[in-house]
Amino acid sequence: MGFEETWHHLSLGFSVALSMQNLFWCFIGVLIGTAIGVLPGVGPTATMALLLPITYFLTPEGALIMLAGIYYGAQYGGSTTAILVNLPGEASSVVTALDGYQMARQGRAGPALAISAIGSFFAGTVATCAIVMAAPPLTRLAQQFAPADYFSLMVLGLVLAVVMASGSIVKAIGMVFLGMLLGLIGTDVNTGNTRFTFGISDLFDGIGFVIVAMGLFGMAEIIKNLGDNERRDLVSSKVSGLMPTREDFKRSWPPIVRGTFLGGLLGILPGGGGVLGSFASYALEKKISPTPEKFGKGEIEGVAGPESANNAAAQTSFIPMLTLGIPSNAVMAMMIGGMMIHGIVPGPQVMDQKPDLFWGMIVSMWIGNAMLVILNLPLIGIWVKMLLVPYRLLAIAILFFCCIGVYSLNNLWSEVLFMAMFGMLGFIFVRLDCEPAPLLLGYLLGPLMEVYMRRAMLLSRGDALVFFQRPLSLAFLIIAVIALAVVIFPNIRKAREEAFQE
Amino acid sequence: MKFRAGQDFATGMLFALFGAAALYIGADYSMGTAQRPGTGVLPHILSWCLVVTGLVLILQGVIAESKVVRSALPTILISSLVAAALFFGGPVIGISEAWATLPVVIGCLVMMEILLPGTAWRPLAAVTIATVVFGIALDDLGLVITMILTLTICAAGTPETRWREYFMFLALMLVLGVGTFVLLLGMPIPIWPVRIPHWLFFLQR
């Protein structure tokens, strides 16, 4: 790949991302993202599900740029409240609260916030470059995939999602099976027979992805949060002296670089994303620090590393989605849902067929990151005030938006009832400690896997060995088996549990 | 985790039930040939996988702490007996065997309360009912009435609701809802009631 080609891609991307309309949607996206990042109990997955029906009114570019903005905006917003009021708005900023809040108590909230913003921006820039470099070769590789390779790749994706899920592995496996089974509801495209429809005509096209996602994430979250009796105490701390000292910079830049690379690598893996990156980075910084006993008492390294890592991971998790069309976590599943609403089939062909969409979105991520730095630092006071909105009112508003959002998809009242069912199911899963993300991935990939399985079987004239004869397919399956074996092997499982507990 | 064994057991039951139901419903889907796999291939494989996963979890739960699980046994026994009676006896007396799902669902809910006490039933019921009401009311009663019903039911789901504050919020949401979705986005929803819904048949003359 030549330099000129990269330059061509980037200039195309900038021309799309810098149009007034797309700049506006990017801004709206990061604004909403920061807001929900600040609010505990409202996650990016649920918000994106909520906004999917609305993106129908936008251009495809605007829709995807906005959805992406929500995701990485949430990473920024989550750390703001983690540092200021010890309330991690998102799971990925839990570790930021450890040292960030201690810094705030010592009157150093300003430097903590500034370092976290600078680290995030650096990580976002590097990760965007990584996407630009990695996308074309990966796409070219993916274009040579045969149906059997695709099938095995999806098996690998689901296995890795299971491996990365926190909690019981058996449960995660069951959730994948259940998701795939639910995905089969509706008409079988190959034969025209209906499956699991109970003769209900509104089920013949299957249950929309948005409905499942809103029920499992949006509604279940409302029920769970209304039932929790945790009170939010607002401890306001004054932010003074935003600028970090020279000493702070000197201590922060190595963790920022390490966090960026660690997070970037972990973000590519299915099931990874921001959470794993920030936890791993914190563990790393603590391990190599000359003064590990000071961690948790306001060490700036403990803010710089994880904050860079979660942002880098949030960006690089777009790579498998953009190049292979395979979602690596629930948020990427939402992005794919957004593409499908606009009639774009996710996969390696997107880069060639919709270059303006593809490169525009990538460049918009970098622009969005810059917006976030500008948006966040001066407006911190406003974001913290948002915490004053009581959840009892927020919950009602979210439920209403879920209902009207689902209704607006097809103007079908029955789909609102389906969402209610998935909401109940989602809450039961919360009670049973089952993560819904593997189910959602199975739901999305199940029908696709069936299509590729059928194509592969047709091409091989009914020989199931085809999945083991193609080298790529065999490699994917072997990696999947190794990954499964690794987690089932007791020693490593113990280490994994410890890592999740930390 | 305090409820770990109970959680495993209940999850296992859930998976096994879903798998078994899918096997029963999908029993007559065609399997096709190896070269052209039919409608039933993937459902069959997945159902069996789900059943096996469920059984593994049930076993894990029983091994980890049989005492907790034993407390759920009467519920399981009674609900499966009633379900079996409806399933096999229902068609004889002229009702669908699908009614057998009712005791299963009730049994599962009771089991959840036994195995995992402290479930937030109030928000669960309120949020679910609010959503269902939204679905069945919107087409007939229009957005305003539907919103008042849905939002109020949802507000009743938590003891924290302060009603004076809520009604001010409701007024704001009504303006926002009608303004954005009907007037601005032009969704084809009636604002005011258009007819007496058919499920209120006793009001119709």
Outline the structure in words.
The complex is a heterodimer of chains A (502) and B (205). With 502 residues, chain A is mostly helical. Helix content of chain A is 75%, strand content 1%. A two-stranded antiparallel sheet of chain A has the order 1-2. In chain A, a hairpin with a 6-residue loop joins β1 (186-187) and β2. In chain A, α9 (209-227) packs antiparallel against α17 (391-410). Chain A is globular. The model of chain A has no long low-confidence stretch (mean pLDDT 82). Chain B is mainly α and 205 residues long. Chain B contains seven helices and no strands. In chain B, α4 packs antiparallel against α5 (101-115) and α6 crosses α7 (163-184). The radius of gyration of chain B is 23 Å and the shape is extended. Chain B starts with a helix and ends in a 21-residue tail after the last helix. The model of chain B has no long low-confidence stretch (mean pLDDT 84). The chains are: A mainly alpha (502), B mainly alpha (205). Chains A and B meet through α8, α9, α17, α18 and α19 of A and α1, α2, α6 and α7 of B.
Keywords:
heterodimer; A: mainly alpha; two-stranded antiparallel sheet; B: 205 residues; 0% strand
Q: Tell me the quaternary state.
A: heterodimer
**Total strands of chain A:** 2
Give me the Rg of chain B, rounded: 23 Å
In what order do the strands lie side by side in the largest sheet of chain A?
Answer: 1-2
> Averaging pLDDT over every residue of chain A, what do you get?
82
- Overall radius of gyration of chain A: 22 Å
Biggest β-sheet of chain A, characterized?
Answer: 2 strands, antiparallel
Q: For the record, give the distance between the C-alpha atoms at the N and C termini of chain A, rounded to a whole number.
A: 42 Å
Tell me the strand percentage band of chain B.
under 5%
Which two chains have the most extensive interface, and how many residues on each?
A-B, 64 and 71 residues
* SSE order of chain A, one letter for each helix or strand: HHHHHHHHEEHHHHHHHHHHHHHH
Shape of chain B: extended
Secondary-structure class of chain A: mainly alpha
Low-confidence stretches of chain A: none
| Count of DSSP-assigned helices of chain B | 7
- Taking pLDDT < 50 over at least 5 consecutive residues as the criterion, the unreliable ranges of chain B are none
* Secondary-structure class of chain B: mainly alpha
